[in-house]
Amino acid sequence: MMNSARPRIVGILGGVASGKSFVAKCLEELGAGRLDADKAGHEVLTRPEVIAKLREHWGDAVVDEAGQIARPAVAKIVFARTPEASRELAFLEQITHPLIGALLQKRIESFAESGVRLLVLDAPVMLKAGWDRFCDTILFIDVPTAERLRRAQGRGWTEKEFHAREAMQESVEIKRRAADFVVDNSGEPEATKSQITRLWPLLIG
Asked: What is the pTM of this model?
């Protein structure tokens, strides 16, 4: 449970392409601040010490012409359908997760100073990384697998890529069990917004 001097924090869980970012945006529109773990992860990958470690492990193939980490190249390694992929992903997470967690903690403290009452944490690997320890409440975004696959394909993903990403995260059943509230995001955006609006008083405390 968070210190009472800090904002309440709502974590968002869901399967791949379930609309977690959309729900986070809905909460932002109601006045919440946002903790974006993906954005923090991108920032961590620009740190020279991280670049050096990844380059030493994977070679120049994961570094672009500007000397920065080429995220698509890294993704091909850690999300490949190979026996080695899970080990390579674990290597990446061992380096980046502690740094991302520390960055999220700093941003929580910064939001606390600004007087924001509620923060939303959008982090696909929240449970795996242990960042649910930051949260007072967790929302599970419920969308059937077939619909999530359709949405992912609309983004240009192949079915193989979708299932590879899904396999690298906790199952949707585990995520659902960890949640305090379930939001149905399988229908129209306005229906989801209505659910978030109804939940807002409960989330803000």
From this structure: 0.87
